[in-house]
Write a structure and sequence with these properties.
831 residues; binds zinc ion; four-stranded antiparallel beta sheet; alpha+beta; 33 strands
Length: 831
């Protein structure tokens, strides 16, 4: 059987996809005695067609999974669909198609696209979060967490999107107080809501970040900032005839330098403390702030502005009365919504003090004996720790010691204490939407809120619903759903009509893959012991503070429930860059620069697309789509094809006769082994698929450059061709299978390359680089040898003497002298 000379991906790819499927090649658990690796990519929301971002994330994950399988691991590489959520519901509002119908159709189409790309998923584990068999476990977790007090019902200030007509998460509120999804203005609304007490896990989630060494630092930094622990103190400043103003400060050591206090414009005390003569001006300012965007108000470059309330408050440490102002840069939501201002030691306070001519008093010196200029002469605020000055009994203490002592003093006197504050808020997760998991509680007139008993799960989302996108939640208008009986007293009751945020679905899907068909529990703890945590998690960096935080939170809850055994869900995180359009801009219909995987597979085949994605840049970097580069990679595969075709005679060359000493074919062998090393290194550690693919291109060039003559040459070519197919396999798996089978011939027909071991390399062949050394006899060039850079005279002489042409000139002569110039030449002086 001779192979087709022309590279035709469309005949090859479906054939190997079928073979892999028939063989169950990618089923997890096939190697029970091997070490496990769990490779996971963030599952897709099944929109109509796959976009290039999906193509990139699954191609990266698949290269990793295929490589690990070839390294002998038992690999779990599952896929499913994040199928609930707003897009399908919003689309239904526009065209009336039911979200369930649309989602099912989309899943069918999306699955087919994924299959065409030849990803090595274990399809038997496929899940879809819109199946009651999945979301019943969301409900189960809800009940467990309600029992444990991790789920609470509260009056919450919620972000209400005026466009989506629903509550959205803090994290979904983007620039200008707008909705991330629909860009409509977001307003604050106080409503009863369900929330997860993720704040109870704030310290754990923060501490855990230190152990996530294989997560990108920018992601852990973003999480650290989002969790936002501040260590400080609350201090009460008395206001005669009013409640005291409680300020939160992380620098109580500077309190003797406080020369004014500032309230947020929204602070409830503003109206009460403002003196009648100032009221009109203060109200106007408050009103203006209400209409100003938060980021605009508090941005680093925003001008500091404020207004005096006419009131004074007493600094409890000094007994001094300080004026109370309101200012644009203080927010009600941070700390207590009130701050003490220390202009000498805070730049913002300094700018404000200069503008409004408020006193500036230095109370921290950089070191004992140092003196900063007087307040009025300070160039900029001194914000570092130092030694306290002009601070009464605390003068002379270091800042850290002073903070402890002063917090303790405040506590003993009853006007304050040490306090830790967090940026992280509880996760309000009830949504006034239809296409989500029903929240399993009922409202009974006699018993109040009653959880649905576990045995009655799932509470199924009714298919019949009128989705208008306005007013009441759609479920409220489905009487068959709403009207039920109270599980406690049996009297009529109403079901909860709100549904869960879809971030609930994605918080634990990684665990559902372990036993996706188990209908008695969310996951099998034995399987969790085998497979968790995820070893490599691949997805977009935009999920840093939403999904990835919830995912870590939920894993901890699962551990508390005895379902999993470790704190963190994923050991390593790989975040991939964007695929931009050919013009370097983000792909968008508006700019007409959208390229999708489907048509590219039609034109070039999956392998070329996969190669492009992996070759264009390392995973974390953005790439620009390039037709030329894609065509170049298609041509590369064609070149690979032709060299296999041209070298078919080498496939059967005897193994034993590999060239060891010199010549082109030793150089080819060295190239082969160096390529194995290079590609292997690119699969590990930093993930540099691109340099691995570049090395494969060089190997192909080297194969074209040499013409095998004897069996030894052919054996070297065969070695190179086998390595090439094997190394190509994680990147262009279909072509690699085809080529590998050509080389191994009928003997290997039942085996799959996907199952073959990853090649190893011979250290001695890659150890040092070789140099070409000129061989002269009596000063005349008679040949060349290839020798390791470090080779000495003896080694080079031995190599030279074994060269055919050199030997001819030496035979029958006496070597009188040898001149050796390392790395350059060897000259035999004969007579
Ligand atoms: Zn919206
Ligand atoms: Zn009842």
């Amino acid at each position: 059987m001779s192979m087709n000379e022309r590279y035709d991906p469309h005949s090859i790819e479906p054939r190997w996809q079928r073979r892999w499927e028939e063989a169950g090649a990618f089923r997890a658990g096939r190697r029970p005695s091997a070490e496990k690796r769990y490779v996971l990519e963030m599952f897709p929301y099944p929109s109509g067609a796959m976009h290039m971002g999906h193509g990139r994330v699954y191609t990266i994950g698949d290269a990793i999974a295929r490589h690990l399988r070839m390294r002998g691991y038992d690999v779990l590489h599952p896929i499913g669909f994040d199928a609930l959520g707003l897009p399908a519901e919003n689309a239904a509002i526009k065209d009336g198609q039911h979200p369930a119908t649309r989602t099912r159709e989309n899943i069918v189409a999306f699955r087919a696209e994924l299959k065409r790309l030849g990803y090595s998923f274990d399809w038997e584990r496929e899940i879809a979060t819109c199946d009651p068999e999945y979301y019943r476990w969301n409900q189960w977790f809800f009940l467990k967490m309600l029992e444990k007090g991790i789920v609470v019902r509260r009056q919450g200030k919620a972000n209400w999107c005026t466009g989506c007509q629903t509550v959205i998460a803090n994290e979904q509120v983007v620039d200008d107080n707008r909705c991330e999804r629909c860009e409509s203005p977001v307003v604050e609304k106080v409503i009863p809501e369900w929330a997860f007490r993720i704040t109870a896990y704030a310290q754990q989630l923060l501490d855990g970040l230190d152990r996530l060494k294989d997560w990108p630092e920018r992601i852990t930094t973003m999480q650290r900032n989002w969790i936002g622990r501040s260590d400080g103190a609350d201090v009460d400043f008395a206001v005669p005839g009013q409640d005291p103003i409680r300020v939160f400060t992380t620098r109580i050591d500077t309190i003797f330098g406080c020369t004014y206090a500032v309230l947020a414009p929204e602070h409830p005390l503003v109206e009460r403390v403002t003196t009648p003569d100032r009221l009109a001006e203060v109200r106007a300012f408050v009103e203006r702030m209400r209409r100003t965007d938060v980021l605009e108000r508090t941005g680093e470059n925003a001008p500091k502005e404020g207004v005096f309330t006419g009131a004074h408050a007493v600094n409890p440490f000094t007994g001094e009365r300080v004026p109370v102002w309101i200012a644009n840069f203080v927010l009600a939501g941070y700390g207590t919504g009130a701050v003490m201002s220390v202009p000498a030691h805070d730049q913002r306070d300094l700018e404000f003090a200069r503008k409004y001519r408020l006193p500036i008093r230095v109370v921290i010196q950089p070191a004992r004996g140092d003196r900063l200029p007087a307040g009025e002469d300070l160039e900029k605020a001194y914000t570092e720790d130092g030694v306290l000055d002009a601070s009464g009994p605390f003068t002379g203490l270091g800042s850290a010691e002073a903070r402890r002592g002063m917090s303790a003093h405040a506590e003993s006197k009853g006007f304050g204490k040490a306090e830790v504050r967090w940026h992280l808020r509880d996760w309000g997760f009830s949504r006034q939407r239809y296409w989500g998991t029903p929240i399993p509680v009922v409202y009974c007139d006699a018993d109040g809120i009653v959880p649905v008993p576990e045995r009655d799960l799932p509470v199924v989302l009714p298919e019949k619903a009128i989705i208008t996108g306005t007013g009441e939640p759609p479920l409220a208008k489905v009487p068959e759903f709403v009207n039920t009986t109270c599980p406690r007293c049996g009297k009529p009751a109403r079901r909860e009509v709100e549904t869960m945020d879809t971030f609930v679905d994605s918080s634990w899907y990684h665990a559902r893959y372990l036993s996706p068909k188990d209908d008695s529990r969310p996951l099998d703890p034995e399987m969790a012991r085998r497979w968790l945590p995820v070893d490599v998690y691949v997805g977009g960096p935009e999920h840093a503070v939403m999904h990835l935080l919830y995912f870590r939170f939920w894993h901890r809850v699962m551990r508390e429930l005895g379902l999993v055994h470790e704190d963190e869900p994923a050991r390593r995180l790989v975040t991939q860059g964007i695929v931009n359009g050919p013009d370097g801009r983000k792909m968008s219909k508006r700019w007409g620069n959208v390229v999708t995987p489907g048509p590219m597979v039609d034109r070039f085949g999956a392998d070329t697309l996969r190669l492009f994605i992996l070759f264009a840049a390392p995973p974390e970097k953005d790439i620009d789509w390039s037709d030329e580069q894609v065509e170049g990679l298609f041509r590369f595969l064609g070149r690979v094809w032709r060299i296999y075709h041209a070298r078919q005679d080498c496939f059967r060359a005897p193994d034993a006769a590999l060239p060891q000493a010199t010549g082109d074919f030793l150089e080819l062998r060295r190239r082969t082994h160096r390529t194995v090393k290079k590609v292997t290194e690119g699969m590990e550690g930093e993930l540099k698929f691109n340099t691995g693919i570049a090395a494969l291109m060089e190997l192909v060039n080297a194969l074209y450059a040499c013409e095998p003559k004897g069996d030894a040459d052919r054996a070297a070519v065969r070695e190179a061709l086998l390595a090439l197919a094997t190394l190509l396999s994680p990147f262009a798996p279909h072509a690699a299978e085809e080529l590998w089978h050509e080389v191994v011939g009928p003997a290997g027909r039942d085996r799959l390359l996907a199952d073959e071991p990853w090649p190893s390399f011979d250290e001695s062949l890659v150890a040092a680089d070789n140099v070409t050394i000129a061989v002269q006899v009596n000063g005349k060039l008679r040949g060349e040898v290839l020798a390791p850079v470090a080779a000495g005279e003896a080694e080079v002489r031995a190599l030279a003497e074994s060269e055919e042409r050199v030997r001819a000139h030496l035979s029958g002569k006496t070597i009188r002298k040898v001149v050796f110039v390392p790395k350059r030449l060897i000259n035999f002086v004969v007579g």
